[in-house]
Amino acid sequence: MEADITLRVDGEDRKVTVDTRTTLLDALRDRLGVTAPKKGCDHGQCGSCTVLVDGRRVVSCLSLAVARDGAEVTTAAGLADADGPHPVQRAFVANDALQCGFCTPGQVCSAVGVLAEVKAGWPSAVTEGDAAPELTDAEVRERMSGNLCRCGAYPGIVAAIREVGA
Amino acid sequence: MTDQLTPNAIGRDVARADGPLKVLGAAPYAYDQPLTDPLYLCTVDATVVRGRVAGVDASAALAMDGVELVLTHENAPELSTEDGELRVLQSPEVHFRGQVVAAVVATTTEVAAAAAGAVVVTYDTEPFAVTAGSDPAGLHAPEKVNAGYPTDTDDGDLDAAVAAAAFTVDEEYTTARTHNNPLEPHTTVATWTGGDLHVFEASQSVFGARRVLAGVFGLDPERVRVTCPYVGGGFGSKGSPHAGAVVTVMAARMLPGRSVKFALTRRQMFRLVGYRPRMTQRVRLAAAPDGTLTGVGVDVVQESARIKEYAEQTAVAARMMYAAPNRRTSHRLALLDIPVPTWMRAPGEAPGMFALETAIDELAARVGIDPIALRVRNEPERDPATGKPFSSRHLVDCLHEGADRFGWYDRDPRPRSRRVNGWLVGYGVAASTYPAYRMPANSAVVRYTADDRYRVEIGASDLGTGAWTALAQIAADALGVPQDSIDLAIGDTRLPRATVAGGSSGTASWGTAIVEAARAFRDKFGRTPEPDDEVFADAPENTAAKDFALHGYGAQFAEVRVHEDTGEIRVPRLYGMFDAGRVINPRTARSQLVGGMTMGLSMALHEDSVMDTALGHTANPDLGEYHIAANADVHEIRADWLGIPDERLNPMGSKGIGEIGITGTAAAIANAAHHATGVRVRELPITLDKFLR
Amino acid sequence: MKPFAYRRATDARSAVATVAADPDAAFLAGGTNLVDHLKLGVACPSLLVDVSDLAADLVEHLPDGGLRIGAGTRNSDLAAHPVVRAHYPLLSEALLSGASGQLRNAATTAGNLLQRTRCGYFRDATAPCNKREPGSGCPAVAGHNRHHAILGASPDCVATHPSDLAAAMVALDATAVVLGPDGERRVPIGGLYRLPGDDPTRDTVLAHGELITAVELPAPFGGRARYRKVRDRASFAFALVSVAAAVRMHDGVVEDLRLVFGGLAHRPWRAAHAEDALRGSAPTEVALRAAADAELLDARTLSGNGFKVPLARNTLVSVLRELTDGAAEPEDDA
């Protein structure tokens, strides 16, 4: 069954007809040609498809597009602004926080989400007590564990995120 | 000796050239290529292990709006291959659970998936064997093992050495079935136009993919173009096309002019693209009272597929690592009704060095000397396997230098001697090694375009290794220009031929061709060429391989913590010191080595593909249940190198670094876990249950 | 995935009426469990009723000192809620130990509680499974059962419930507010889940069409609490064993406590025997071990999960040691 929806993708309103079965990820990639988010597992287990929906990081593979009608979606392609790439993206390059690059768009979206979550005072599993979290290595590792990287760029990813959050 | 480049760009710590594109998500991987009205393929996979397809009812699928084609063994084009893995849909036979038995092509992924689910396949089944030991046919000795090594070796008299030894080790080590699982699933996008085939293939070798696909479809390779500028990891599984590529090309052939896209599901990644087989190694060591090895024996039994033999060269590292006059090795296969295994990062050395280096640690404990001292004591003068001199071998330096930097000698060697906040803490060490290969059949073109810019072309692949960066650095030095004067082109069969990004041979193989072309270019055109001046050159023969044993080395150190109550195991520190020749780009090289060590950690602690013997397939085929190391599992991992060029190998003096990082890691961690707890784990992965009492 | 219709609900009563009237309809909220199951062919509804817009994401104080949590409250919001962090840290710890940041941003409170039990064979539509296809058999009993149940299982099903939140909610004595076609009812979370018995198809006591609209917590239990999750990865993995524990001490004696195991059974496992053994006792190492052993006396292990018995015992002892001020803490020697 088909549905007409509108998504605001990387700052641009996009009308698209989807199947009710179409995930947000497939709507972006196959129907809108927005291929920055990647399909690594299609079951929420790798994080390669992470995008920001209304400012929050989510896996776009476990979200039905029809249920996101009207949402604002930011992919790695949309993180850049007139000044160039997002500081997280620049820090990823500087810290060689990637190799094959396939998980990277999801990693950077997730990292932007993490920085906002830490700024908002959200705790993680490694936050001690009810204090405001600090952006330690342990915090970054825990918070970024939903984004698998098979090339093993984790140390660079942690360094990049700490650099931006410092 | 080869004529060495004067290092200027090479050795420089420059950022990954493709980084800016990748962080934006703008690097076009195989599935991301813009196409007009593509079609989507979804396969139907066997739900029985062994037998025959008795019938296929595709009527419901064909009735769905948007379904363009249902492909079965009854209507599939005939293929010209005898390769049991690639003979897709050529007969009703089913050889393993999950084999492709039909495929649907439709206008959307949703329709393709639903239609594939609506294809009704019935089977006649036969008894099957999916684990070693359950196969009545017994074990099989392959003609040779992967990379062309002999199956068995026998020097001296191992049994006599063991009988006469002051100290012995005789243990079995088991490594799990593990899956490459690059984050990018294997992907094929195929379009036939007239008699020409264009394929975007997630591949570590566009020329290898072309050769295989041309062969399978009986085509002149010149009519096949394979393009793949960016690869989302592969670690061996993308070294050669698999069934998914064949079925996609087949479907596209039946839908001429249309592009057919297929990306495997993650579940299919556990059965259709190869994996490292489960294996058991019996390791025997014999030593004199001072720890001098008198005998080394490794007997490997591994699982392989009945339809296509793959024999991992697991015992090969033990043939050359340590001096011992009596050495015997063997490889045997259990040929089973299971998916076809293939290369996974450091085939042979990764499992082989787990067993050997754990056994060496066990021997050190029995002899009562430091495991580093034991290794140093058994350092060979010449390669024990071939009798050739080593082109260079700095293992002892790696051990000593690494030990100092890690703080190895801080440890109390007694097991279970250190406890911090309820965690038992231990240190472990292991050696690493990997051959320094350079492949024949590489060529490059250097062309002067204009304005001090040079275009350098070679059909190489970058699966995350840093080839985009390192090859530009090599070209710059070979031409004597800055790196930013180089426009590199890779990843297309329209470029000069190149070998696989595999065997840690890419940089050496492609770099040598580029240097040859650049030097020929300067010889012909000098320093002031005209636009479009161009030279094509083949890489010269690898003469060093005839006279020398060519290998890289390393020493890895692990700090491990095991929770006293729960057995949870963590690796707060991994340190690797490598003998990797000259390093072309420290930044991308460090990432490669750390990445290899990370995969080694993952192999040590997490990865375990469990065969369900009743159902005959992997019981945990997704990333939620087949764990690979997540960010929180990886703490401090560092890699350094000695930085001693090996001038015999290639004009860069480099050794390959893509695979050595995974070798020895699991042993270092297992040895550290033993030091922490007193529990010797000989079966990977090292999970918490192994420490529980 | 078979085609389905999608409707966005604007009020809870009509959503419930719609789903209750259609045996092939299902509620959709965060989607992290359901969409996964749609793709796997484990769930095949013909109609999805999206309850995301029901404005059920309020966290409010109750007059009795408790807390009412709207069913649609996202896991990450609930975990970060200042009142939850201050007064129900067990809940926050449990939520944060589950899934990943991205999933917690989408998953809702009720959706988390109502996620299906976890078993690889249930998720594999090509395998037999009594939960998915009644009567087809349970391959886990003789197959890959590392993650499976050691308590309360049946020959028909040995799956475990994966929700960390549920274990914490049981320990907190929470109650689900459930709207059905015939009105509202209250179901203690401790009684929400079923053991598989001879009908593993149902994970909970809820009838088709019933919708959890809120979860209510009583006033804080007091004392100290801890959610400890043991798993095969350091993060982003399901529990092998988890312990939700809350302990109130008085004069060196356990005044009251709540102990719940996750990862051991088809439902969160209230360790009532262990609680009874310790209530009113001094928490010595011997007493803690005896309490854990009492709870695990009826454990029945399978080929691959025997380690869960010592793991559950040791984890429970470890947590209780910590919460009772380290009565028998082993000493560091380095």
Chain-wise SSE layout:
The complex is a heterotrimer of chains A (166), B (693) and C (334).
Chain A: E1 2-9, E2 12-19, H1 24-31, E3 50-53, E4 56-59, E5 72-74, H2 76-79, H3 87-94, H4 104-119, H5 137-143, H6 154-165
Parallel strand pairs in A: 1-5
Antiparallel strand pairs in A: 1-2, 3-4, 3-5
Helix pairs in contact in A: 3-6
Chain B: H1 19-23, E1 39-45, E2 51-57, H2 59-62, E3 67-72, E4 93-94, E5 100-106, H3 109-118, E6 120-125, E7 139-140, E8 144-145, E9 149-150, E10 153-155, H4 158-164, E11 167-175, E12 187-193, E13 196-201, H5 206-217, E14 224-227, H6 243-254, E15 259-263, E16 279-287, E17 293-305, H7 316-320, E18 326-336, H8 349-367, H9 371-377, H10 395-406, E19 419-420, E20 423-435, E21 443-450, E22 453-457, H11 467-479, E23 486-489, H12 506-525, E24 534-538, H13 544-547, E25 551-563, E26 569-579, H14 586-605, E27 611-612, E28 617-618, E29 636-641, H15 665-677
Parallel strand pairs in B: 1-15, 13-14, 17-18, 22-23, 26-29
Antiparallel strand pairs in B: 1-5, 2-4, 2-6, 3-5, 7-18, 8-9, 10-18, 11-16, 12-13, 12-15, 16-17, 19-20, 20-25, 21-22, 21-24, 25-26, 27-28
Chain C: E1 5-8, H1 12-21, E2 25-28, H2 34-40, E3 47-50, E4 59-61, E5 67-70, H3 75-80, H4 82-87, H5 89-96, H6 101-106, H7 109-113, H8 120-123, H9 164-171, E6 175-180, E7 183-188, E8 211-217, E9 224-230, E10 241-250, E11 253-262, E12 269-270, H10 272-278, H11 285-296, H12 308-323
Parallel strand pairs in C: 1-3, 2-3
Antiparallel strand pairs in C: 4-5, 5-8, 6-7, 6-8, 9-10, 10-11, 11-12
Helix pairs in contact in C: 5-9, 10-11, 11-12
Helix segment tally of chain A = 6
What's the helical proportion of residues of chain B? 10-25%
CATH T-level fold name of the largest domain in chain B: Aldehyde Oxidoreductase, domain 4
Q: Which structural class should the secondary elements of chain A be placed in? A: alpha+beta
Q: How many distinct domains of chain A?
A: 2
Quick one: how many beta strands of chain A?
Answer: 5
- Strand-residue proportion of chain B: 25-35%
- Helix count of chain B? 15
State Rg of chain A.
16 Å
Q: What's the CATH class of the largest domain in chain A, please?
A: Mainly Alpha
Summarize the biggest pleated sheet of chain B.
7 strands, mixed
Contiguous low-pLDDT stretches of chain B (5 residues minimum) are: none
Fourth-tier CATH superfamily name of the largest domain in chain B: Aldehyde oxidase/xanthine dehydrogenase, molybdopterin binding domain
Name the strands of the widest sheet of chain B in spatial order: 3-5-1-15-12-13-14
What is the correct CATH architecture of the largest domain in chain B?
A: 2-Layer Sandwich
